């Protein structure tokens, strides 16, 4: 794809043009907003209009919930093997349409073609994983104290699930939730991020082709999520909400759900520490920091936010990291040589620059970057490394969500663990060391739902994904991923 690409040329170049949908999807039908209203979706790299999407009203959202409820009455009776076959077909269709799906991800999200393709493969893996888990939803037999009784448990689907997903992984955040819901026998109503509705709608198109019954998967689109989120929370038909997003919004949804006592699973904000101990392989730690910090141009929930480097290797690590970051090439995701794409909005750029300015004013040392890339457009920021960071700086206490690597020196293991745990959130944490005693010691001491030791990647379908503290609760993926979509029924039989 050359520099002369336009959204129209990308869309017209799809091998399967039916994947580009602008209407919402309810009960197996493509629907427009009742009022005829739409909202615009723009390419973050060029700010050019990609298309529009239907602005649904609350009456239509309620209808989607009702349709999902009607579908659930039959879908819950299907066999796990039937649902496994559906998921397997959805997985295969995603791979058959991998290039087109990746183009849509790059177009609406901005990430590079390579990253977008990786996301599609990652997203499909959840359909595969849960296709294999669906037939293994087992109950238990429990001995009774009374010899005339038998106790056993049944795991049953919870019901209609409201799913709210963000823009930063427009395909994977959906499949990770929907895969588990379908495997369990639930039906779903999905509200995708307004910045990235097309990946979600493309997945609905493929689900239909795979034979998913009407009403099982519904996509409601709107520019604003507040009223839809409130409807999900207050509607008694919705039995569970799965939300990925900010801690602030998660708290609101939790409050709004209290009247109906829904089951909730939240993956919320993070502020991931990345610790490089004095005995670490520095070159490997640099590679890990780059992979984790700058993935998606720093716009992922498990991105490194605070890098702690032991004082004895701080300067060496900072220089090597800055040297590698200086080789990045930022630009539109479709450009062949681009390593890192735009940020999602100019507001996101402004936040990064605020953190950079604050750190430099408080004594941080700029190693590379440090300014918006206005020559490329309003949504670009030069990848930045700042060393000699301290706890007074905003980048340490706040999640930046952008391409800023802030390096804090430390002296002792006890000190860095205390610093790493000094936030209200606890999603992901990473550390590099060759000391196997330290591996267990620090892994257990870090207050985080996920820990990477000498690795930067936490993303695979078999891994339990989720946080602790104000990063939320519940787990996605892995053998634990079905739990939040199931209820356990105890049965006592007398004879």
Largest sheet: 7 strands, mixed
**Proportion of beta-strand residues:** 15-25%
- In DSSP terms, counting alpha (H) and pi (I) runs of 4 or more, how many helices? 15
CATH superfamily label of the largest domain: Aldehyde Dehydrogenase, Chain A, domain 1
Structural class: alpha/beta
Mean residue pLDDT: 97
Q: Briefly, what CATH class of the largest domain? A: Alpha Beta
How much helix is in the residues? 25-40%
Radius of gyration: 23 Å
| CATH topology grouping of the largest domain | Aldehyde Dehydrogenase, Chain A, domain 1
Please provide the count of β strands. 22
What is the CA–CA distance across the termini? 71 Å
Please tell me the CATH architecture of the largest domain by its name: 3-Layer(aba) Sandwich
Q: Which shape, going by the Cα principal axes?
A: globular
Strand order of the largest sheet: 14-15-16-13-12-18-19
**How many structural domains can be distinguished in the coordinates?**
2
Question: Any overview of this molecule?
Answer:
The chain is an alpha/beta fold. The protein has two domains: 7-268 and 472-491, 3-Layer(aba) Sandwich (Aldehyde Dehydrogenase, Chain A, domain 1), CATH 3.40.605; 272-453, 3-Layer(aba) Sandwich (Aldehyde Dehydrogenase, Chain A, domain 2), CATH 3.40.309. It has helices at 7-12, 58-75, 80-96, 98-109, 113-133, 172-184, 197-210, 226-234, 247-257, 282-293, 314-325, 346-361, 394-397, 413-420, 436-445, and strands spanning 24-26, 29-31, 38-42, 49-54, 141-142, 149-157, 160-164, 187-191, 217-219, 238-244, 263-267, 272-276, 304-310, 365-368, 384-387, 404-410, 425-426, 428-432, 450-453, 468-469, 472-473, 486-494. The strands form six sheets. Strands 14-15-16-13-12-18-19 form a seven-stranded mixed sheet, with helices on both faces. A six-stranded mixed sheet has the order 9-8-7-10-11-21, with helices on both faces. A three-stranded antiparallel sheet has the order 5-6-22, with no helix packed on it. Strand 12 (272-276), helix 10 and strand 13 (304-310) form a beta-alpha-beta unit. The mean pLDDT is 97. Keywords: Oxidoreductase. It catalyses: succinate semialdehyde + NADP(+) + H2O = succinate + NADPH + 2 H(+); succinate semialdehyde + NAD(+) + H2O = succinate + NADH + 2 H(+). The active site is at residue 267. Its EC number is 1.2.1.16.
